[in-house]
Design brief:
CATH class of one domain: Alpha Beta
Shape: elongated
CATH architecture of one domain: 2-Layer Sandwich
Structural class: alpha/beta
Largest sheet: 5 strands, mixed
Number of strands: 5
Strand content: 5-15%
Order of helices and strands: HEEEHEHE
Number of helices: 3
Distance between the termini: 107 Å
Radius of gyration: 29 Å
Strand order of the largest sheet: 3-2-1-4-5
Helix content: 25-40%
CATH topology of one domain: Nucleotidyltransferase, domain 5
Length: 141
């Protein structure tokens, strides 16, 4: 007796549940990820008891240094801690005018090497009006 072979059904993968799961994962990751990077460095200036200097009306170049040693020139955070990137950012901010005041705002816990690097770059570029910002000590409670 000759039996007929059953016809084989073509195999299909149902991708709809997989696509649904991936869509939910994409939405979850988009909602849980923060896309904003802080554009300012958080620094805590060291204290000094002297008199505050008069603010000049001319524009100046301000280099901020965070506690970790990251640089920011006039509020723009630099991606690199290299002296070459610092030099090009200072040159761009000063527009070639090395007569304007140069201000260093370093966190109290900043590595000394980072401050020396900024001072060295400023000196090599020809800045002569260099100052370091501090804050007034808090009154005793």
């Amino acid at each position: 007796m000759k039996f007929r072979r059953p016809a084989e059904d073509p195999l299909e993968l149902n991708l709809t549940p997989l696509i649904d799961c991936l869509l939910f994962l994409i939405i979850f990751f988009m909602l849980s990820t923060t896309f904003l990077r802080p554009s300012k460095l958080q620094i805590s200036l060291p204290e000094a008891g002297g008199e505050a200097a008069a603010n000049s009306s001319a524009s100046n170049v301000e280099v901020s240094i965070s506690a970790s040693g990251s640089f920011a020139v006039n509020g723009q955070v630099l991606a690199s801690r290299q002296a070459t990137s610092l030099r090009s950012a200072i040159e761009k901010a000063s527009q070639g005018n090395h007569e304007i005041p140069f201000l260093i705002s370093a966190d109290g816990n900043t590595p000394h090497q980072a401050v020396v690097t900024v001072m060295d770059v400023a000196g090599q570029m020809g800045f002569q009006s260099l100052s370091i910002s501090t804050r007034q000590p808090e009154a005793a409670k």
